[in-house]
Amino acid sequence: MKKLHLALTASALVIACQWTHAKGWVDVAQHNRFAGWACKSGSAQMVDVHVYANGRIIGAGKAGNRREDAVKNVCGSTSHFHGFDVPLVTPADMLDGTMKDIIIYAIYNDGSHEKLDNTPIKVQFPHGGNSTPPPANFGDIVGRDLDVSGLGYVGHIGVGRRDGG
Prior knowledge:
Elements: H1 2-19, E1 23-30, E2 33-39, E3 47-53, E4 56-63, E5 65-66, H2 69-75, E6 81-87, E7 99-107, E8 113-115, E9 121-124
Antiparallel strand pairs: 1-2, 2-6, 3-4, 3-7, 5-6, 7-8, 7-9
């Protein structure tokens, strides 16, 4: 019986240690927007979130949007307000068409921080603010959205061959 009690106590400690780490998940990961939820386990405290790309901070926000009961329950919280939606103005020098490692941290009121459970994640950053890379060779077809201010239409452009084909 003593061994069973010791085993149960050890199991409870392992579970308790797991509950004390940062809780959170990234639901949306784009070069200009990150959304999900973050919380301090066992607390109703709203936490800040910081978004890093390849070790460089590119945005921050507050995890204070309403989320479903499942998030409240996994946080062990009395509050539903653990969601975040961080729109970003991506720095121009990061719009280089490469994949970047994104880490999002929960920042607690005491200044401590921990990364969210499903980070790091890889996100493709477009070329120069456009989601389509420029043509590499003459004859390559490239489609782009053209949001022409005031005209309210979306179109595309292409690059054709010189021989008329």
